[in-house]
Specification:
Blueprint (H helix, E strand, L loop, with lengths): L2 H21 L28 E8 L9 E8 L7 E5 L11 E5 L12 E7 L3 H13 L15 H11 L22
Antiparallel strand pairs: 1-2, 1-5, 2-3, 3-4
Helix pairs in contact: 2-3
Length: 187
C-alpha cells in the first residue's frame, strides 16, 4: 500500500467508525416513540406515606448520551398520592415558556428510551422541609428564559443550582452532568 493510501485510510477509517456509531446511537430513531414509562425505581405513592425526594439522571437523547446526562428531581410530600417533578427542558423556550418544568409526573420515567439512574434518595423525617426548600430554590432559578447545551445553563445547571441552594441534600452529580458547574455573574 502506498503512503498516500495509508494516509487516506487513517483519515477515512475513523470517519467510517463515527458514521456507523452515529447511525446506531439510539434504540429509537424517533424520540416521539421512545419509552417514557416508569422504570420502577420510585416507591408507589399509594402505599408509601412517608415523604420522598429523589434525584435521577439518564443518558441524553441520541449521540449526546455517550457523554452527557439529563438530570431531574422528584418529590412526594408525606401523605401525597403523587410525585411532582422538577426539571429544565430547553425546547420549552421555542413556545416562549420558561425552561423550568414543575409538574405532576412519573418520578422515574425513562428519558426518551434511556433508563434512569437514581442519584439520591431521601425519605422520612426532615424530607418535607427539604421539599419546601427545593421548591423555593426551583422557583428562584435565575435562568428560566435561557438554555444552552454547553456550557449551560441547562438541566444539569438547574439541579446543581438546587443542590447549592439546599446543601442539606448533599447532592453529587456525575461528571457527565455537563453544565452542572455553570455560573454567570456569580449566581
Amino acid at each position: 500500500m502506498s503512503p498516500a493510501a495509508k494516509r487516506s485510510l487513517k483519515l477515512l477509517l475513523p470517519l467510517a467508525v463515527l458514521a456507523i456509531m452515529l447511525s446506531n446511537c439510539a434504540t429509537h430513531k424517533d424520540w416521539h416513540a421512545a419509552s417514557r414509562e416508569s422504570a420502577g425505581l420510585a416507591p408507589d405513592p399509594a402505599t408509601t406515606k412517608e415523604a420522598v425526594l429523589q434525584v435521577y439522571s439518564a443518558p441524553a437523547w441520541s449521540w449526546r448520551g455517550w457523554f452527557a446526562v439529563h438530570t431531574w428531581l422528584a418529590v412526594k410530600p408525606r401523605g401525597a398520592d403523587h410525585y411532582r417533578v422538577y426539571e429544565v427542558i430547553g425546547w420549552r423556550l421555542h413556545a416562549g415558556r420558561s425552561v423550568v418544568r414543575i409538574a405532576r409526573d412519573l418520578p422515574d420515567r425513562y428519558w426518551y428510551g434511556k433508563q434512569p439512574r437514581l442519584l439520591a434518595d431521601r425519605r422520612g423525617a426532615g424530607v418535607d422541609q427539604l421539599i419546601i426548600a427545593v421548591d423555593q430554590a426551583a422557583r428562584n432559578y435565575p435562568w428560566k428564559k435561557e438554555y444552552s447545551v454547553f456550557p449551560g445553563p441547562n438541566s444539569n445547571t438547574f439541579i446543581a443550582w438546587i443542590g447549592r441552594k439546599v446543601p442539606e441534600l448533599k447532592l453529587t452529580l456525575p461528571f457527565s452532568a455537563i453544565g452542572s458547574g455553570y455560573a454567570k455573574n456569580g449566581k
